Amino acid sequence: MTTLSIPISGDLEKFIERMVRDGKGANKADVVRRALREYKENEVVETILQAQREITLGKGLKGDLRQLMRKIK
């Protein structure tokens, strides 16, 4: 595991400390890790939703996945 040292505003530090007090994380690092995991999950969900929007607009790929992959290579 890598350790990062980053400057944050006083407001963010207070927010993180409140999250620890409220039991949202075991400590400050845990709160930040949880926040980053949630951010990552939200990105994945947004990517899926965007793909669904594109399919609705007729921009999706159709056909056999293996054949499509051969065309891309």
Automatic annotation (TrEMBL):
Lineage: Bacteria, Candidatus Nomuraibacteriota
InterPro entries the UniProt entry points to: ParD_sf, Ribbon_hlx_hlx
GO biological process: regulation of DNA-templated transcription
Top-rank taxon: Bacteria
Protein name in UniProt: Ribbon-helix-helix protein CopG domain-containing protein
